[in-house]
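Dear colleague,

As promised, here are the two records you asked about, laid out in our usual form so they can be pasted straight into your sheet.

NAME FIELD: protein one
SEQUENCE, THEN STRUCTURE:
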Amino acid sequence: MNFVEQGITRRHTFFCVDRERHTHSSAEVIEAVQKVITVFGKQVHGWVITTEEPVIDKTIPLGESLEADELLHDPE
């Protein structure tokens, strides 16, 4: 018997100057807002971008899920 973990997502919000770089990644762009920030006294025009991407998408064998030693190696 296997358990399938799916549907768990993680959101990231960050500032960048190249919006197009993030529109072609595996993450879904939830929101992109133009923003001007000041860095070391200079104004930088960019975007505040929020993305969402799946965190877990794997099949876990029942034997592995019952063995405590294996859980220590699980990156999640």
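NAME FIELD: protein two
SEQUENCE, THEN STRUCTURE:
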Amino acid sequence: MLIIFILKGAVVMVFPKKPYSKEEIIDRLEEYARLDADPYSGKLFTIAFESGSEELRELLHRAFTMYMDKNILDITEFRSAIKLEKDIIDIAKSLMNADEEAVGTFTFGGTESVFLAVKAARDTFFIKKGFQIPEIVMPVTGHPCYDKAAEYMGLKVVRVPVDPETLEGNPDAIKEAVTDNTAMLVGSVPNWPFGTLDPIKEFAEIAEEKQVWFHVDACVGGFVLPFLKQLGEPIPDFDFTIPGVSSISMDPHKYAYSSIGASIILFRKSFNKMLSQYVNLRWPGYPIVNPGVLSSRSAGSIAATWAALHYQGEPGYLDLARKLIKARNLVLDGLKKLHFNIMGSPRSPVVAFSSEEVDIFQLSDEMLNKGWFLLPQRGIREMEIPRSVHLTVTPIHEQSSGQFITDLKQAKEAVSKAPPSEIGEMAKGFGMIMGLTAGEMDYEALRQIMNKLEGYIEGYGPELLKAFGLEDGLPQEMAMLNELFDALPPEIMELLVNYVVIEIYRKGL
């Protein structure tokens, strides 16, 4: 049995003195999963990319299991991984219209692909200009994984405003932000918050003129936009046919419907990939050769991705793209009839909407009560980007979009009839008490806070958890937390969330 004891309200388990039976293990896993969302339900508009095909799902599970115990840290032991990866990269290259010189790497998520692109761009910058702090210039809608890569590898991110109407990247703003320190430009097709497409051709022209690395983030769109384009959707070119594009990232675990996580980074030139890899022959052990960030890696995701691409083929992905178009249009029509504001002009399967009639955060909670999982977004007040709700539309939503709109209508009516919430004012008041407003935080203030942070957390951490209703874990309804995210400066909220997440995982709540 597992020995358990209580520590500051958390149940702590020590190493089991007696093994569980198979039945006990399955029962415990099912118990832990009882509050999980069902990724196959058609009620998730979040990070679940569901094709709706049980046959595909069963095939992926089998392929993953066949290869999951093969550690491709050493390709001399499991050479099948080389063949599988080559096939996958070749398919990705064909979708992105790459020539024979282009090469790629299979990674285990879009963030890892971005890390490799950032490293290659950074090292290219060092080769050309010597050692100084390089910068990444990108629209404000670019994914935070670039900030993460910059924090790990010593770069600086410069985010510029997007067009306030289209929510697409602004080439003039990008060009103005480029300096001698710029190592990389980034454009997204689409961006995650709103599903709009940055003008890749215009960005690439700037990159060529300024002689800087240009990365196309097609993590969301790489395996769907080419098929939407074949079906007549107005998708502009964004691939290697455009001079100036240095690298492209694309995720099979999104709209190729492979297992999580699976991503690809493509480089226009072999030398670019050399700068992304890690090789070490300086120690007395085996040669370290890491094409990606990770060393030990299961071949399961590679096998599942290979299976998905070959099982679906071009006809299968075109059929899923047709379902996507139908589902997206049904959702958009329903949102317009309910008088929600569509963010930009979505040409991808990602849709976002805002409202001047009801509180978006409360609406998301009301929909959660009906079993729908949405992603509320705080927006950026200073750039006149309002709060919104992000919807990741997938083929399974062709079946559930009608019910979604019906439930959304009821949720909107319920929220509009509810008395005004005090949550927003409470959150704003908390910000005022702290004497902070968004945009006022500078590096010196942040440095002083960080110097005192450990003492603050020891003294006030438990009280903060209690005040935010987090002492027993994450609440189902998130409106209050979302209001806090919106009311406090991001630098402060990031520190608080950092602490809260550690405590939630420590307690297993």
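A couple of things worth noting about protein two: The chain has three domains: 4-36, 62-306, 423-507. Residues 24 and 30 are 10 Å apart (CA to CA).

Best,
R.
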